[in-house]
Amino acid sequence: RRAPATLLSPPPPPEVDFGRTSVAAVFLGSQPTGGYRAEVQNVAVEGAEAYLDVAVTEPSPGALTTQALTNPWVMVAVDVPNLSSVRFRNTDGELLGTAAAR
After folding, report:
1. Which of 22, 45, 62, 97 has the maximal Cβ count within 10 Å?
2. Would you say 57 and 36 are in contact if contact means Cβ atoms under 8 Å apart?
3. DSSP character for 20?
C-alpha cells in the first residue's frame, strides 16, 4: 500500500496469496526528473533464493523530461513462498545487491 501512496489515484493492491507467492521489489530512490524506469526482465529461482535481472533506464542527455522529483519502482510476484533472499543483477549478469527476505 505504501509504494504507490504518492500517486494521485493509487490503484488497489493486488491479491497475493503469501502462502504460495512472495513479492520482490526494486526501488530506484528519488530521481531529479522523469524518464527513469526499473524493469524486471527475468526471475530465476534456486531453492529459496530468487535472482532478478533488472534493467534500469535513464533519460538520454538532452531528452525532454518532466521536471519533477520521481521515485521509480517495480514489484513482481515470485511463485515461491518464504524466499530467504533476493539477488539483483543487471542485464549483464553482474550482481548489484542482495536483500534478505522479510
Report:
1. 22
2. yes
3. T
